[in-house]
Structure formats: structure tokens, C-alpha cells
Amino acid sequence: MYQYNEIDQTLVDERVAQFRRQTEQFLKGELSGDQFRALRLRNGLYIQTHAPMLRVAVPYGLLSSRQLRKIAHIARTYDKNYCHITTRQNIQFNWPKLEDVPDILAELATVQMHAIQTSGNCMRNTTSDHLAGVAVDELEDPRPYCEIIRQWTTLHPEFDYLPRKFKIAVSGSTHDRAATQFHDIGIHLVKNDVGEIGFKILVGGGLGRTPIIGQVIKPYLEKKHLLSYLEAILRIYNLFGRRDNKYKARIKILVKETGLEAFSQMVEEEWAYIRDDLLLSAERIEAIKNHFEVPAYQRDASEDNSYSQLLTDNAEFASWYKHNTVAHKVSGYRAVFISLKAPDSPPGDITDLQLDKLADLADQYSFGEIRSTHRQNLILADVKQGDLFALWQRLIALKVATPNIGTVADIICCPGLDFCSLANAGSIGITKEINEVLDDMDYIHDLGDIKINISGCMNGCAHQSVGHIGILGVDKKGVEWYQLTLGGSSENEAAIGERLGPAVEKNEVSQVIATILDVYVKQRLDDEESFLNMVQRVGIEPFKERVYANH
Amino acid sequence: MQIIKDKKLTENTWQYLADDAQLTSGNMSVSLTKWLQAEQQLLNCEGQLGVRICPHDSVTLLANQLDKIALVELDFPDFADGRLFSSAWLLRSRYHYEGEIRAVGHFMPDQVFYLSRVGVNAFAPEKEEYLPFILANLNDFSVAYQNSIN
Fold first, then answer.
1. Threshold 0.80, pTM exceeds
2. Are the CB atoms for A498 and A544 separated by under 8 Å?
3. How do residues A287-316 score in pLDDT, each as one tens digit?
């Protein structure tokens, strides 16, 4: 993975010093609340319902075992022994003390980590495919480009006070696992007519209150132009994005109101001025690529087939293998999901002890690296098939082997009313109730691929509008109600879910979900028809009919 | 009040003239509207001329006249309005303006490092007590990832 050089290290060290000073000035009353708010947000620090929340950047979801141990140490020393994986592959601490945050950032800097630009109206952490570098359907590893973008976005002097937050995601595979169509800028590695690899650029996608699918602004961009083209888009957005209404300030609204053609024209004109000044050289790309070199895979890994007998003999292992591991581009290896969706714990939460043990497992089984996913799980990406059984047993002991990845129980959930000051309604409790209704693992497996996303307010941190089933908490005169949508997707066939009908009361949600799933099981064409395919085929009517039958 | 220019404390020799005020002598800055309306009259006055830019003003309107202007003031109504960062960059990089670019109004002392990187070389903060912070904060970082003006 990427290793800091002296410049990278100096930059994060100086950032820590700067934030330490800003915090001291705020505590002495030399910085106003408004001023400090803008500065602390740009260092990942929110003030939440109970305490500050610190969001740490995990660039494109990649962590070393050393970094994982540091996260564990911070959870233990400065927080309540756990942290939370976010939907943008970052890590959140829910209980740090404001005056401790500079020390936490200094600790992070010792392992080449930071919280720079993880919130605020600036360019955020660049996210990517959690299977980058190991996916079987990958054209090229997107991580070197993510790192190039990470550096370009970090402390960009011109674009740190944008109209609103700005998110970039990069995918290098044919299957989009990075939700690129729902980012301010989505980037796909693609091949052109003569077989060269470059980028397809999408713009103006986003979730939140006004979900919009991004549109292609540049079908093919040569690699050398990546940064100049991004700069052109950002300059147009910075100058012309709306600043009069924060709900209309994202680039998606500018693109929508301007029209893609006119917006694209503005970008092209801007780009014409700068395209030759900011070239990304082949040498620089190569230098960054060298940081992501292929690990020392064992050539004979595929010869150890002991696990296939175990798959036959042990149904639980077979179930875990089927649901929680995926194919790897190198024969004899699998990528292994660490499920942070145990039925009795909040989605995406992980304890210091689990983090420490996972760091050991990463060292032992996966070249010392681990990844975070936007569905709030972790991955050991390079596990030899011969090690799978032993690893599975270790993961069971850590309670992170629930065989539910990609199932209805793999719920994306925001912190909701329990932690977040923006929330209108609880989300963790709803997840728990759904889990209680779905207590039969065979039924869960029979349901197949269903993505439930639950957000506690319109801001939609859990991306409910692109959940196959979306659940949105709303406040009606001080009471928590839940609005359901069906048929959303953040993958290739991107779609925004359709509203099922009137919101339902809190105590009805899990039963409504059970009803929806029952309609699916009874009316699907066959076992092959997924929930999403069925919703696309029949629409929401059959679901609506049953859910509101008694109303 | 003193200002900071080229990393030094300096006396301010400029005066901003409201749109309805009488023209005087000495170094005067005016709004972009005033400049576009009364350019010739202004050029007839003694002293140097400056133009005060608001976030919504397009600096492109000044592009051909920058040789007559000794000062461009970037007037921050609110520190969160980042358009003026692009305005400064455009003045320096695209229109090759070499005169003084001065941040005025409600910018934060914690923004001066970025402002200086996009080409702002003078700072007239809203409060005099910010001056020492500005001098210190101009040295916040010794490294940078991107090319900009400085």
C-alpha cells in the first residue's frame, strides 16, 4: 500500500500542529464558535448529541495491520473501546473529548493516518472498490489513481471552501462496487477504441435529500489529463455552485439547473486553458503504482485443496464460504469478508479487542492489510484457500463470521437518533428489530441478495434511496415514523427507490419488512429472480397491496 | 489600521470609496460597478487605483484593464464563501496580474496560508488583533501537494 514520503509525513505533522493551535485558541476564546466549527469539520470533528464525533480518513478503504492496532489503541485510550465503519470507508469515534483530539490526530500521524477533510464543505476522502487489485472483473487497479487524487485534493488551497461537500469515487471494474454514479464525480477506468486505458468521468450524482444519478460528462479522458480535468470541474463548481441555499448547493443541482450540455461546455472552456499545464506524467503514475505492487502470492496456493473436503463435511463452513468469501484474480486465493453485522451489535461497530485480533489475522493470513467496505464490513483481501478453514474458526471466535454478507441482514445503518444531532429517528433499534424478525439463517440465505439501507433522517447517510429496500426515519410531531422505498440500487443498474406509500409507525417497521419479503418469496418467478429484479418486473403494487392491506 | 503585506506589517495607504462618494486624490479603491461606470474619471484622478471585488464579481471583466490597477481587494462577506480563492488564482495565473491582491472583510486568520498560495499577498483583517495571528499562520505548512501560485 501507499507509504508516506517525507513530504506526506511533514504535511500531516504540520496539520496536527495547526489543529492543536486552533483548538487551544478556541478554548481560550480567541476563535469564535463559527470559525472553529469550519476548522474542526475540516479535521473530521463534529459535535454530536452526546459528545464530539471524530471521523478518520481511510483513503480508498485500505488499512495496514499497524494502522488497525493504532485505531484499537485510540478506541481504548480515548473512546469507549469501539469505533464505527462508515459508508464512505472511513472510521468514526463517537466519544472523544474535544481537548484530546489534537493528541488523537498526533497518534494517527505516527501511522500515516489523518482526519483531514473528512467533513466540511470541501473535497472529501476518495473512495473506491473494496475489491480493488483483487477483483476478477478488474480492468486496472484504481488505487494508484485514488492516491493521486487523494494528494491533489488534500489541502487544495483553492477548493477548501466549496459551496458544499464534494465526493469522488473511482472504480476499475466492470461491476461498480463503489457507487460511482452517486458521487459528485465518479471515475471509471475504461478502454478506448484502440485499447488504451483512460477514464470515463461522471458528474452530478449524489444521494441525500435529492438523489440524482450522475451523468457522463467525458466518455474518455486520457490519463495524463486527470487532474486538469478535475480542476476544471472544481473551478466551475466553486465559482458557480449555489451558495444561497445549502440544500441546493451540491454540484448535482448546478448540473441539473445548468443542463449537462451547458455545464459540460463551461468545463471544456475552463479545461482548454489548463489542460497542458497540469499534466500527469507517465513516470508519476508509475511511481505511485509501485506503491501498490502485487503481493508475493504463492504460486502453488491452488494446489492445497484440503478445504473442499471441509466444505462437503461442514455445512456451516460451506455457508460462510459461500456468503462471506469471493473469488480472487489469483488462483488459490479468496477475498474474505469480516461481517460487522452480527445480529446483536450495531452495524459497522467494532471493538478494540476485535481490531487487535484482526490486525494479527491480517498479518498471518493477508499480507498485513485489511480493507473497509462501503457496506460497513471489513475484508481480508488475499487469503490462501488452504487457510480459509483456520481463518474461519478464528473469525467465529471474534464473532465476525456471521454468514450474511450481501443478504438482507447485511444492513447499512447510520448512527441515527442514538448518536447524531441531525437525526429525526432511530436507526440502530430498527436494525435490531429487523434482525429479530429474521432469526432464521436458512430463510435469510433463501432470500438471496437484498440490500436494506436505513437512515435516521433526510440527509441519508446510510444511502436509503439506493437500498433495494430503503428505510428513512422521519419526525411527525415528535414521533418517529418510517418511510419505505423499494427498488433502489447503487450498482451498475443505478436506480432511486420508489416510495411504497405512507410512512409506517416505528413498531410496525420490522413486520412491514417481513411482509415485503414474504411477497417476494411467494411471487418471485423462481430462485434465480433476485428481489431487485422482481421489483423491476412487477413494480411496487403487489408489495403495497399487502403492506397496507389492513390500513 | 495597519495591514500585512508581503509578510510584513505595513501602514495602509489606501482608501475605499463608496459608490456615491466624491472622487478624491490619493490611492483609492472602488467597487467593480463603479470602476466599469467611471473608469475614465477615475484614471484622471491623482494617485493609484484599486478595485474591490465581491464573490459574485467576475474578474474576467477586469482582464484587459489590469495594467491600470495597482490593487485588487477581495472582499469577504463571509469566510465560508470560497469563490474569491478562485478569483485570486484567475487574476494571477490566467490574467498575469502582478499588482497587490489584498484580502479584506470577514476572512479568517486561519485561511491566510491558502489565500497566500492562490496569490493573495496582503491582508487587511476585520480586527486589528488578528494581525499577529496572520503573520504566524502564513507559515502553517512548509510543503504542498499541488501547484498553485505560491
1. yes
2. no
3. 999 999 899 999 999 999 999 999 999 999
**A14–B146 CB contact, under 8 Å:** no
Same fold, A6-109 and A301-397: yes
Q: What is the mean pLDDT of residues A111-140?
A: 97
What CATH number should be reported for the domain whose range is A301-397? 3.90.480.20
Q: Which CATH architecture has domain A6-109?
A: Alpha-Beta Complex (3.90)
Residue B142 belongs to some domain of the structure? no
Asked whether A182 and A166 are in contact (CB, 8 A), the reply is: no
Residues of A with CB under 8 A from a CB of B: 7, 10-11, 14-15, 18, 22, 30-31, 35, 38-39, 121, 151-152, 154-163, 235, 238-239, 243, 273, 278
Instruction: Give me A302's grid cell.
Output: 491452488
Q: How high is the pLDDT of residue A49?
A: 65
Which segments within A98-214 are labelled E, that is strand? 127-128, 168-171, 185-191, 197-203
pLDDT of residue A551: 62
- How many domains, in total, are found in chain B? 1
Q: Are A408 and A454 in contact (CB under 8 A)?
A: no
Distance from CA of B139 to the nearest CA of A (A): 10
Which residue type does A437 have? V
- Among chain B residues, the shortest Cα distance to A151 is held by B145
What is the domain range of residue B129?
17-137
Interface mutation target, options B58, B81, B86, B113, chain A, most CBs of A under 10 Å = B86
The residues facing A454 across adjacent strands are A413, A471
Where in chain B does DSSP place strands (E)? 2-5, 8-11, 14-16, 27-31, 49-53, 71-76, 100-105, 122-125
ipTM above 0.90, yes or no: yes
Tell me which architecture the domain covering A412-547 has in CATH.
Answer: 2-Layer Sandwich (3.30)
Q: B76 to each of A80, A545, B2, B23, B27, how far by Cα in Å?
A: 42, 56, 18, 24, 21
CB contact under 8 A, A161 and B79: yes
Which one-letter amino acid corresponds to residue A262? A
Q: Which CATH class is domain A127-287?
A: alpha beta
> How far apart are the CA of B67 and the nearest CA of chain A, in angstroms?
21
